[in-house]
Amino acid sequence: MHYITAGESHGPQLTGIIEGIPAGLTIDVEKINQALANRQGGYGRGNRQKIEHDQVEIVGGLRHGVTLGSPLALVIKNRDHAHWSEIMNPTSPATLANTVRRVEHPRPGHADLVGGMKYRHRDLRNVLERSSARETAIRVAIGNICEQLLATLRIQMIGYVQQVGSVKVDDGISPALNVTQIKEQVEANDLRILDQDKVVLIHDLIDRTKRAGDTLGGVIRVMVENVPAGLGSYVSWNTKLDAKLAGAVMGVNAIKGVSFGDGFKDATNLGSHVMDEINYDAAHGFSRLTNHLGGFEGGMTNGMPIIINAAMKPIPTLYKPLQTVDVNTKEPLKANVERSDTTAIVPASIVVENVVAIELAKAVTDAFESSNIERLKDEINRYRQELVEY
Amino acid sequence: MHYITAGESHGPQLTGIIEGIPAGLTIDVEKINQALANRQGGYGRGNRQKIEHDQVEIVGGLRHGVTLGSPLALVIKNRDHAHWSEIMNPTSPATLANTVRRVEHPRPGHADLVGGMKYRHRDLRNVLERSSARETAIRVAIGNICEQLLATLRIQMIGYVQQVGSVKVDDGISPALNVTQIKEQVEANDLRILDQDKVVLIHDLIDRTKRAGDTLGGVIRVMVENVPAGLGSYVSWNTKLDAKLAGAVMGVNAIKGVSFGDGFKDATNLGSHVMDEINYDAAHGFSRLTNHLGGFEGGMTNGMPIIINAAMKPIPTLYKPLQTVDVNTKEPLKANVERSDTTAIVPASIVVENVVAIELAKAVTDAFESSNIERLKDEINRYRQELVEY
Amino acid sequence: MHYITAGESHGPQLTGIIEGIPAGLTIDVEKINQALANRQGGYGRGNRQKIEHDQVEIVGGLRHGVTLGSPLALVIKNRDHAHWSEIMNPTSPATLANTVRRVEHPRPGHADLVGGMKYRHRDLRNVLERSSARETAIRVAIGNICEQLLATLRIQMIGYVQQVGSVKVDDGISPALNVTQIKEQVEANDLRILDQDKVVLIHDLIDRTKRAGDTLGGVIRVMVENVPAGLGSYVSWNTKLDAKLAGAVMGVNAIKGVSFGDGFKDATNLGSHVMDEINYDAAHGFSRLTNHLGGFEGGMTNGMPIIINAAMKPIPTLYKPLQTVDVNTKEPLKANVERSDTTAIVPASIVVENVVAIELAKAVTDAFESSNIERLKDEINRYRQELVEY
Amino acid sequence: MHYITAGESHGPQLTGIIEGIPAGLTIDVEKINQALANRQGGYGRGNRQKIEHDQVEIVGGLRHGVTLGSPLALVIKNRDHAHWSEIMNPTSPATLANTVRRVEHPRPGHADLVGGMKYRHRDLRNVLERSSARETAIRVAIGNICEQLLATLRIQMIGYVQQVGSVKVDDGISPALNVTQIKEQVEANDLRILDQDKVVLIHDLIDRTKRAGDTLGGVIRVMVENVPAGLGSYVSWNTKLDAKLAGAVMGVNAIKGVSFGDGFKDATNLGSHVMDEINYDAAHGFSRLTNHLGGFEGGMTNGMPIIINAAMKPIPTLYKPLQTVDVNTKEPLKANVERSDTTAIVPASIVVENVVAIELAKAVTDAFESSNIERLKDEINRYRQELVEY
């Protein structure tokens, strides 16, 4: 299984192709659209999100709502492309009229400057249109298809927010709650947090930060439950599934840190408090008494819930702009302000959840014969049973 | 560029093949052996390290000390294989005599149990011989060749220890020191730490932990300097170099968290304290005033030193053994004790440094025409000059 | 560089994404459309081609006609989807009305039967809609972009027809003609053949075959000139460029054989008649006196024109249908007739030319720093000069 | 599954690593050595083969004769390295004494000249030591492991010789013989041909060619039987298994053409003579009445035997040397004669057989869950049964 995306932030559309989804899977397009809506929500966002209501179209690989086994092509139209149809026109040659809105003042914390140097762009719009987090919309669409695939195999997941700026919501790494319970809690507020009592506090933090022209990051957690043991392998450095997940999560815009289970706390704790002791009962086979390691041992899933944490830096664009330099005149000045979210931690939690879904769906479909979803289900069921009987 | 390794902990040898090292590179084998010795050192290690003195042999791709451009084959003989020549014999059939030392009590925190389930092993030695951190020796050998390649291009790096258990040595993320200065400091003690004043304190912590039959993890930092801007790309989720580095570092045994620059602190700080403002002077071109982001923007190197942090969990094997279950009888019992380091944070810092070297060498050789090292040097020099003149 | 395509024959559109085209390349969309028209032409085709006039749209990665360095997304709408909008509807659930035109009689020589077994389809339309050669239209669009890239580097190519059924047009393997001259000749007739005197003969063969309800294959040749020596490498089995080209060409629908230069004749000839002797002159450096080996030695381009031959089997669909079996009733019967070309050798020559272009563009951009087309041009020029001075 | 090899022709050893062989597979090392002996045999070979008797050692991934699931490391020592220990010394610096036997006269038809230009070697020994067909020994060792894996799944194969120079032995493409019968026939002579009556004729051809100082190529066929339908896929250009096989076969030294089934004859025949009509009986399910297409439709195996043909050019090294140019003085002269086989068609047939085995084993292990051979067997059996019941 692999996928690729294309499209610029104000271009006509985002396009994605994913290959390797089994034939015979019924796709609920409304679920994809709901995930896209979730990605556009959350407290602390600016106005742009309000004008877009992303809708996916599937233009290949699907027939009568069921996958064919051929590559799936997905499209999300950019609704405000209408206002940019000249400036971002794919084919009409550059003119004085359509090259307004040039970007020549690279924004610190963005790809602007280095992207310009690497690709020899002098209008940095040619960089930021692609490096923008707008692209994550199509990753969410692809990820939701993967979530639907995983759900068919009874693998459930949720991404949510654990920390906004300096406010930690939940520090436990082995929550007593399951995915369904977490979902209920975090979808009951606009911060995707577990502790309803902290909503007002964090709203207030965001409001104050916004008034100060500043921005906030946070920490995201993704939990996945009912993953069979043995996905990934210890045999080589690049067969470890936790390593692949870490790469995928770090590949989300603005993520600067990734960890599993207790994560950086593991570095502090004594060994006797880190390992998850092994238990056995005949009905369920082997299990662990705790989950400090976040569901991974030796790069393999161990049957416990996967717990991934991701640190998101604050959105770099500030109303209180930072020092930069004009790439043409070389004059120092203040960076452009291009958008206006105070924090994007809520949408980022959706994106991280979805890239985790993609990697897990890939792990499953790469490991098992996956031409057809029913055959795959049968195989996974037999494999689960074998694990119980080990 | 890509590489693969093979070999079991007590088998005859570790073997590695790396393809894509340019022709014409002079390899100093003694430097590789020095890196291997560093990996075997450090306070807090058990006795096994003392009997091994790893030496690399290069058996392919090298002639008269100079690379040919063909794949390099590396061998590290396992010096104590002599004692295991029957038990780990590759070809002689299993007998009563050579199947002693079976492992049937999976150790929590290791690959043992899940490896047995996945591959259907009932003697878990068949798992742990490969999942053992012994394999990292050959990764260090490969990594050191990559470091020698990078050094030819004036890219320098160092891995060291920032935290042992709960003792933090250095919390600054933008150290005033360069690689050479750090190297001097961290090689002046057996903990690879910057602050000589903390050596006694940490020795004491390790000694006490050892007496208590417990183990310690820690935090590792790798710093790389003089990396040209523009390695990696923002254009796709899997072209981001920080994502690849995160994957490679998470692929090191016992690493549970990876971050860049300020890492998880970025989640806490305000945006105005996270971004690295842009500066310019004609002689050096663009630079940053700070390095909170650890040398990456948009998944690309930005010309500032790369700063990677890795959280290592404590070694799972404890003198104070944990609860497990016999995989055959299903009886609960205490896990086997197979080795005896109190902490492996020093060797892990060498390993992490070397896997970073491999990924960076890969990034450079994949990006530029790299058949011959002199041609590559010329290209990189021209590219660096172009960046200054942007 | 890599690419992927999606889309079914009667679905809404074909979609392709290609990543790795350098920034700064001006794309002439009309040239792509011309290549698409060429693919739809040629003597011996049925009626479907006449109703389609493929037009490419570029919906990502291009701005004002110039590549951005981000992935390019290409779309070709299927013009007759209007007539299939229910039957091939991606999302509306299956009903009695929209599941007419089921295919339950697998056609010998097509993917129908095995595709049904592998993916568990019982309506084989779910297979043939993707396995159809319709998909090659988007490969041609991608290939033409690659040809435009290669032309910027002065690499020129042409695909043409050497044999139709049993009629051989040109047997010489080292034609005195260059690409421009061949182009002129083969575009002067509707068979893409060099010898105008054989046009009537072959038209007659095709007409007779059509009347007999039968079909014809043929042999295609692709010639590429001005390729720098040293693309590909002998160092590993999977770094050989001729091997990659062979794979790509064999990946075109209906191709059953691939060879380079004299190809299968090399098996018959004596060694003294096969090797290309080496010459030298100061102005041009090294060259070969002949080109029996078709431009490859040791898996590397050797600076002589690349000569690739491909054997195409006849189109399997026959008016004179073959024995098959109903996949549901298991009754023997005659296979469905779904389309009506007598030979597709002309369009196949365009497709093969274009997949060769893709592999060569990949070889060039993978070998050299290719973020920006101007930088790439400079590098290639320096490399060419170095070869002359070797 | 993937593999890589390293090692030079006169270096200390050849090394190979293959990852992805299931755990639990019993490896018969003698079978590997027999395949290595077969590769060294055949009429028409020079003296070098007589001094070498290749023996494989397995130094990783195997314990007590059974695979562990970890990467397998294989070594074949070069027995005449003793005579080259200075000239090909990996580490001792170049001196006057150890740089004798320089090669400065590139041999036409070899990688020598282009390899020198690409990697900037002036002693072309640095090229030919790796580009030599010596490397295929380790590919055969890896391939034989794959054959043993496939045999466990009841997939059998044989490579043999169909043509030597201009003498065709067998032109039938759908032989009535099965693999076992072919094996008996072709192993009854030293040419690996089916027709014992042609042995004298071909011996005579080889003898005459040798006296004339010339060399011979030929055509190889590989047949594989009992391959389940549905390996590979039509869904994308690079999922087609015939395309991958074509690439792997073209990646064997001296191969210039590859085809399936009737191959280039398909280009000549009418469609009604090319397609393989479909049959059905309840006990065996679907089958084909003929096998013109060599076991592939739509890039997938169709359950019929796989038939691959490969055209081998004559060995370029001639006693009657060809024109070349000294790479340093630029003087024209006659090419070095480095070895002395008159034809290597017999060993090449073994090599091609083995690379086919590797690709098929890869296709199987990539498609199915392949951690353990018994689980894999069960899956394949269920899949085969499903195909019968389709």
Mind explaining what this structure looks like?
Chains A, B, C, D: It catalyses: 5-O-(1-carboxyvinyl)-3-phosphoshikimate = chorismate + phosphate. Chains A, B, C, D: Keywords: Amino-acid biosynthesis, Aromatic amino acid biosynthesis, FAD, Flavoprotein, FMN, Lyase, NADP. Chains A, B, C, D: FMN binds at residues 130-132, 253-254, 298, 313-317, 339. Chains A, B, C, D: It holds the Pfam family Chorismate_synt. Chains A, B, C, D: Its cofactor is FMNH2. 4 copies of one chain form a homotetramer. Chain A has 390 residues and is of the alpha+beta class. Chain A has a single domain, classed as Chorismate synthase AroC (Chorismate synthase, AroC fold), CATH 3.60.150.10. Chain A has helices at 29-40, 48-51, 112-119, 125-131, 136-152, 179-186, 199-211, 241-250, 345-367, 373-389; strands at residues 2-6, 13-19, 56-60, 62-63, 66-67, 72-77, 156-164, 167-168, 218-225, 255-260, 278-281, 285-288, 296-297, 300-301, 306-312, 323-325, 332-334. Chain A has a 5-stranded antiparallel β-sheet. In chain A, α1 (29-40) crosses α5, α1 runs antiparallel to α9 (345-367) and α5 crosses α9 (345-367). The model of chain A has no long low-confidence stretch (mean pLDDT 93). Chains A and B meet through α3, α4, α8, β10 and β11 of A and α3, α4, α8, β10 and β11 of B.
